[in-house]
Amino acid sequence: MQLSLIKHQGCATPFLRHLLDFRVYQTRQRSQCCKIACTVIRHRWMKRAPVFCTHNTTNKMISTQADKENIDMSKFPVERIRNFSIIAHIDHGKSTLADRLLELTGAIATTDKNKQVLDKLQVERERGITVKAQTASLFYKYQGQTYLLNLIDTPGHVDFSYEVSRSISACQGVLLIVDANQGIQAQTVANFYLAFEAQLTIIPVINKIDLKNADPERVEKQIEKVFDIPTEECIRISAKLGTNVEQVLQEVVKRLPPPTFKKEDPFKALVFDSNFDHYRGVVANIALFGGYLSKGDRIISAYLGKSYEVNELGLLRPDEHPTDRLYAGQVGYVIAGMKEVKEAQIGDTLYHQKHLVEALPGFKPAKAMVFAGMYPMDQSDYSALRSAVEKLTLNDSSVTVQRDSSLALGAGWRLGFLGLLHMEVFNQRLEQEYNASVIVTAPTVPYKAILSSAKLIKEHGKEEITIVNPAQFPDRSVVKEYLEPMVMGTIITPDDYIGKIMSICLNRRAVQKNMVYIDDHRVMMKYLFPLNEIVVDFYDLLKSMSSGYASFDYEDAGYQPAHVIKMDILLNGKPVEELTTIVHKDRAYSAGKAMCERLQDAIPRQMFEIAVQAAIGSKVIARETIKAYKKNVLAKCDNGPKHTSRLCKGYLTKKESDGVLHQMTRPPQSPDLNPIEMVWDELDRKVKKKQPTSVQHMWELLQDCWKSIPVRR
C-alpha cells in the first residue's frame, strides 16, 4: 500500500532509495580452459540480500576442442608447423597485425579492446612501442588440417635490433610489414637484411591500405626495386580493419617451409629468451631442434653443466598453457627449478642427461654502443639494486654490466646499451618493475687507444685498450693514437629535405657514401658517422628538420683514428670525475662552454662563489661563475640609493656608509682628499642646521654634500 502510494505520487523517499540501493559489477572469471565475463548485481549495504550473477560472454583460450591440459602436441608433426616472426619499422602495424592473427585463430576474443595484446610491459603501454619480443602459438585450420603457427612479435626500433636477431634464430620465415603511406623506412631495410642473411623466407605485407593517403602501388615498386621481391608476392592488408588478414595466414602455411628437425633425434633445445618469476624461478623460452621433452625429464645446461628436473612445460597462447610434451620444431616455455639468475643464459643449449649432444652456436654477443654509470640513490639500497639489475639483464641480455665506483656517488655499475632509448627504457623498467631509484650519468661511447708506453702495455697485457669510462682516458703522452667508433647510417627521406639533411650530416663530421632514389620522391642516403655525434640528439634534430618524414638507422662500422681529447669539468678548481667527457678537438670550446652554462643554471647558489670551468689538461677553455649570496645593504631604500633612511637616521657606521657611498656613481676623487670624511662632515653640519623632516629631504641634502666635493681634474 505504501509502495503503490509512493509510485503514484511520483516521488522517492530516502527509505525507498536505500531499499533499492544495488551495485552492478563487471567481473571476469577464469577457469582452466576459458575466461567468462560476468555481471554481478548485489545490494550495497544488506549483507543477507541475494546476489545475482549473469554470464555475458565466454572467451575460449584455445581454438581446439581439447582443454589446455589435454592438448596432444604429438598431433602436430613437423610438416604442419610454421615458425615465423613479424618484422618492420617502428609504428608500421606489427602489434596490430599480431592482435588480428590472435583473434582470427581464436587465441583471444574478438573485441574492440584488443590493442597491443602481446605488449605486456608497462613501459610498452605508456610509450606505445614494442621493446620486448613476445611469442604466441596459434592453431589454424587450412584445407581440413590443423597447423601449429608459432608467432614472434618483434620490436621495430633500432635500439632493440638484438631482440629481432634472436627471434629470427627460432624461425624459418618472416612477415615484412611496410606502411602503405610511409613506404620503406630505414629500419625496414635493416630488418630485411637480418632475415636475408639468415636465409629465411620473406613474405612482404603492405599494411594500412585503408588510410586516405595510402599508395600501395608505389610501395610495391619500392619493395621490388630495393629488395628485388616481385610485386605479385606482396599482400595488401589493413590490420586495423582486418582486411585480407586471413590471406596472410594462408600464405604463411603455403610459402613458409616447415622446420627440418626430427622427433627421432636426441633432444636439443635453444634458449632464445627468458624471464624471472619470483615464485617459480627462471622461465625459459625454448625452440626444440630435435627430439622431444616431457615433464619430469632430467635436462642439462651446456653452459653451466648443471642438471635440472623439468617441473612444467607448455605453449604460450599468449598466456602459459601447460602440456605434457613438446616435440621437435615446436616453440614453448620450460620451468626447471632454476633459482639463480645466472643459470639461464640466452643462447644456451639444453639436452637430456643420458644423451650428450653438440652445443648449438647460440647468439652473437650484442655490441654495446652507449655506456652510462648507474648508482643507487642510497648506498644502503645497493644489494637490492644489484638483484634487480641481474633479474632485468636476464630478460634483456643485450645489456652489458661492469662493476664501477665513484668518489661522489659510491659503488655502482657501468652499463652498456644498444642506444639512448634502450638506456631510457631499462631505467624506466627498473623503476616500475623493481621500485628502484637510481642515478644515471651522462651517456658516453667506447673509445680505443693504442698505447706507446711499455709500462702500460705490460700492465694491460695488450697494446690496444678500450675505454668505456672517460675518467680512465689515458694521457696523450703515453698513446700513439686514439680510435673512435664509427657507424654506417641509413637515412630515408623525401627529396624536399635533402639539402637540410646533408648540412646536418656534414656538421656532425659525417662522410657521404651513397645516395639512391628508391622512387620518384624518396631518397636513401648512406653516411659514415662518428658514433659520438649521433648518440644523443641527432635523431630528434633529423625529425624536426624533415617535419617527421625522415627515418634513421645505423649499424656498426668499426673504428677510425680521430683527434679526441679528454675534457674535465672543475668546480672551484677540483675536477668532478662524473662530468668528464671525451670530445673532438675541433668541438672542445663549444662543448665546454655549453657544459659550463648548463651547470651554472643547474647548480644552486651558495654562501660562497663557485667557479665552473672546463679544462683540457691544465688549460682552462671556458668558465662561468655562480655568484655567492651576500647581504645587500641597499635593500631597504625608499627613494634613490638604497638604505638612505638608515644613513639619514645615523644608524650606519662609517664603514657601512663607505659601502653605501661606493655604490653611487661618482667620478673618483683626487688622492690627497678623503671624500668619505668630507661628505660625512658636510652632511652632519647640514642636518644640524636644517633639521630635515623627511627621507626625501635628507636625500637631497646628501646629494648636495656629494656634489660639493671637488672632482679630480
- Please state how the strands of the largest beta sheet are arranged side by side: 14-13-19-10-11-18-15-16
Strand content: 25-35%
Structural class computed from helices and strand pairing: alpha+beta
Reported for the largest beta sheet, the result is: 8 strands, antiparallel
Separate helix tally: 19
Low-confidence stretches: 1-13, 55-68, 640-644, 664-673
> What's the oligomerization state?
single chain
The overall average pLDDT, rounded, is 81
Number of strands: 34
The shape is: elongated
Radius of gyration: 36 Å
* Helix content class: 25-40%
C-alpha end-to-end distance: 114 Å
What's the quick description here?
It is a peripheral membrane protein. Helix content is 27%, strand content 32%. By secondary structure, the chain is of the alpha+beta class.
Structure commentary:
With 713 residues, the protein is of the alpha+beta class. Helix content is 27%, strand content 32%. The strands form seven sheets. Strands 14-13-19-10-11-18-15-16 form an eight-stranded antiparallel β-sheet, covered by helices on one side. The protein has a six-stranded mixed β-sheet with strand order 5-6-4-7-8-9, sandwiched between helices. A hairpin with a 5-residue loop joins β13 and β14.
Identify the notable features of this structure and list them briefly.
alpha+beta; 713 residues; disordered N terminus; 6-stranded mixed sheet; mitochondrion inner membrane; mitochondrial ribosome binding; 32% strand
